[in-house]
Design a protein that fits this description.
Blueprint (H helix, E strand, L loop, with lengths): L1 H17 L5 H25 L9 H21 L8 H23 L8 H16 L7 H26 L9
Length: 175
Amino acid sequence: MLAGFALTYIIVFGAKALFEGVNEDRVFGALMFEALALTYTVGQWWVLRREIERSILWFPASIAGWLMVFVLAGYLGRQGLIVTTTTTGRFLLGLLAGLVLGIAQWLPLRKTFRWASIWILGSVAGWCLLSFAIGKSITNLFEMALMGAIPAILTGVVLVLLQAWSHGQGEAPAA
């Protein structure tokens, strides 16, 4: 996530240098979540590229998931159903993001790992826990780091479990 914020600032400063009168808040707001999604997806792919068959499919699966999250969150936000100024609203956004991204990313995982469906649970848990760790708006570097770290840690634990189960080092849960 920190890389996503850095990428966003590079684009903002580049736009300000190239075009007169660029409003950096608008450019930042318009690009921030897309840059975060891109760097998050690349980071996950970097870890998974040697673990899953046809790892290139991670990109369209994740991009489709992120697009769906953006569309649904925007729609639900305009309807007043997700209000990110409350913990409950952030939790619902986390639930939505975790579920949609988890299902989308499960698709390329399912052919490699027998118990890949637990990826969805790890994604939901990570994004929901994030709602309790950050405030109404991200105001400091620590919260920026948490935004990437919490979901990554929980899906990382899931990946370690999937690897252990696929290599016979652990026992998979009963179906």
